[in-house]
Amino acid sequence: MRLSSVFIIIAFIMLAALSGCSNLSHDTHEPVTEENIHNAAEDDENYKDNADNNKENNNEETKSSIRSWKDMYQSKWTFCGDLDNNYPIDDTGQVLIAYGNDNQISGYHSDTYLYGLNKDTGEKIWSVYGGYYPIHYCINEPENTILIGTKPSVDDDTRLQCIEITTGKLLWEKIFSFEIRRLAITDKTVAVQPYNLNTIMVLDVTNGEVLWEKELEQNEVLISLQRQMNNIIVSQKDGLAAYEPSSGQMKWKVEGNLFPESPHPMIMLPDVIESKQYQILSKNTNTQWITFEDCFRKIDFNTGEVLDSIPTGGINLLYLLDGEFSIVKSYEKEDNGNLFTKSFSLYSNSQKNELFSKNDTLLGAVVYQNKLIYTTPEKIKCISLDTSDLLWECGYSFDPPEAYSPLIIQNRLVIVSNDKIHVFNPDSGEYLYQVDDYNLPVYPILDIPVVDHSPSVIYVSGNEIYISRNDGHLDALILK
């Protein structure tokens, strides 16, 4: 074979390779010509240009989907606590109550604090060290006082302190040898239930002097709310009883079994919980939902009148979204003893009836402009309250939110997943952006015996947002 012929064959093979690589979607049997070679070169340059453009567009899209709340909102103050995490757990209007802990599971942590912060400046007015054991507190807002019970370690006595909320002045202190199980307050008294003692002790709220004591039967429990009540309420085996605070005389009793057997060793169901936002904002102690064996009953705590009832229907959880709506979550028990949600229904508190039900696994929910927006392990969904029709749904580009309910902030849907904040359009489900300047505490364990058993990492009050950070800071932002 002549050398020139070899060069021609090699050139032909190279041209064919170039033509085939220029665009893998082209027909690989297309004849090789000089025109094709020229077009292939142009295609290659265009591919590079398009790749660069796509890269720039993707960068711009990423930038547009990440925003800073400190740029969007005005910073009001930052509080730095003594421990890694600080959570807003209560609000008196003038003072924000914050809980600090080392974010360890109970039994392994050793440090907790309760703080009173000036809402205008973020200044620490007072702090109480809780140590290893749970911190118990209740607030008497008309008298501007807070009662705090602590037992820092096994070797320490229990301290019950009465503190002036806005100044931090210690009004009185009582020392007990027992650990406090429950704490409740009325306008003139504070009731204390010890652990491992079948009794309640009622003290004068002005000086801590003991007024009267009452023996309890086994499994009788003092109803403990974080706000002032008009009566001392005790859940008994055969009903709910109210006692006159000063004398201890029974005023009324609602008959019924309050102690259904729990289907799960770690979860007491049926039960009643509140959404974290509603939990802080709700100051109503005149009426409460109580779990009876056959139903949830809404009780007037002043008179004992049953105002409403919802059948428990098995293993159910009554989830109070706000003053108007509640969710009844239904659970089933697996062979291994674990519980899983199978369905839910939306209940109107004002109309006293079920609006609709869905066979879906609801994690958390919020009501916004006549729509129910809720999270599942796979999606975020939006349902019309009028028709119960699905308006929109979207999947997650992040881990499903397991610990927190959705929030509405300035007409935006805010979802916390792990330590990140994600923001959506609540009208369409469109993902808007991720907040890049806040890393939040992950799945904290709260030892304060409040209804929801875990704190808020984001709390909205009027035109202000309070946000926990995982570096020991608590920020206050003003919505613009």
TrEMBL record:
It comes from the Bacteria. Residues 38-65 are annotated as: Disordered. Gene3D superfamilies: 2.40.128.630, YVTN repeat-like/Quinoprotein amine dehydrogenase. Keywords: Signal. Residues 1-19 form the signal peptide. The keyword Signal applies. SMART domains: PQQ. Residues 112-253 form the Pyrrolo-quinoline quinone repeat domain. PROSITE patterns: PROKAR_LIPOPROTEIN. It holds the Pfam family PQQ_2. This is Pyrrolo-quinoline quinone repeat domain-containing protein. It comes from Thermoclostridium stercorarium (strain ATCC 35414 / DSM 8532 / NCIMB 11754) (Clostridium stercorarium).
